[in-house]
Amino acid sequence: MRFRGTRLRKSRVLAAACALAFAGVAVSATQVVAQATTAKDHGPKPTIVLVHGAWADASSWNPVISRLQHDGYTVAAPPNPLRGVDYDAQTLKNYLATIQGPVVLVGHSYGGMVITNAAAGNPNVKALVYDDAYIPAKGETVFQINAAKPGSCVTADPSTFLSLVQYPGSPQGDYDAYLKIAPNGAYQGFADCFANGVPSAQARLLAAGQRPFAVSAGSEPSGTPAWQTIPSWAVVGTADHVIPPAEQSAMATRAGAHITKVNAGHLSLITRPGVVTDVILDAARAAVRS
Question: Residue 290's pLDDT is what?
Fold first, then answer.
């Protein structure tokens, strides 16, 4: 039955080639069969793994997830512990080890630090996508990158924009950091700093459900970057108030990433999910061809 089905498909392709020829288009039937076979013989669609950043959770990816699933992709958005670069990267690395076949790894914001380290040495990761994200070189930290260029709303006195809460088993001097919701001096508040461009009602929900980020994670240096050996893509929000757009562009250029700029704040995965999804799909198609 399989052989018969193959003959039937080829017959249909040949019929299409004949129709094109009668229409005056010079197409070789052999070429059409070869092109159809090549398309059919592409490798499996990669699994898309989405990694959220600080003060967020996996639900922030929902608008992107629904689009990718509609296009037939298997998508996973595992929780990011937000405990530290090495800890979070190892957690993700262990999760990736459970996935068979090619993977496109996507990170938003601090998630970019995590995927840069977790993908190193994993031959299944075929592409990296950074969405309004840190794309660190070896030894760089979140705090260092934030301060590299002016314009970040999270480089002021921490007491103005962070609420610090001790967590069980925390090292001496470490805390869980929550973004304050209300404006305070130079700090614009959660809505204008972290969620600018998000409808106010949704921004209030994000603020209420934010997941904290261990302060120590901001000063932990990144390891050897996976983008040195894995092709990368970057979405740069030109109205981002957390990671200055100029710094995002500089990091993406250094990594040799395919850059897409979008008029959006730090949460383009929520405000411009179609653009973010299109970039992920570009990376996925390139992964299949690699």
Answer: 75
Cα 107 from chain centre: 3
DSSP 170: P
Q: What are phi and psi of 237, to 5 degrees?
A: -80, 115
Name which of 141, 138, 132, 104 is nearest 236 in CA terms: 132
- Per-residue model confidence as pLDDT tens digits over 187-201: 999 999 999 999 999
Residue 184 token pair: 């305070």
Own/partner pairs, 183-188, CB within 8 angstroms, 24+ separation: 184/160, 185/156, 185/160, 186/156, 186/160, 187/153, 187/156, 187/160, 187/161, 188/153, 188/241
Per-residue pLDDT reduced to its tens digit, 269-288: 999 999 999 999 999 999 99
Q: What confidence tens digit (pLDDT) does each residue in 148-162 have? A: 999 999 998 999 999
CB 48 within 8 A of CB 185: no
Q: Return d(Cα 47, Cα 25) in angstroms, integer.
A: 38
Domains and CATH numbers, the chain: 2-40 (no CATH), 47-151+198-289 (3.40.50.1820)
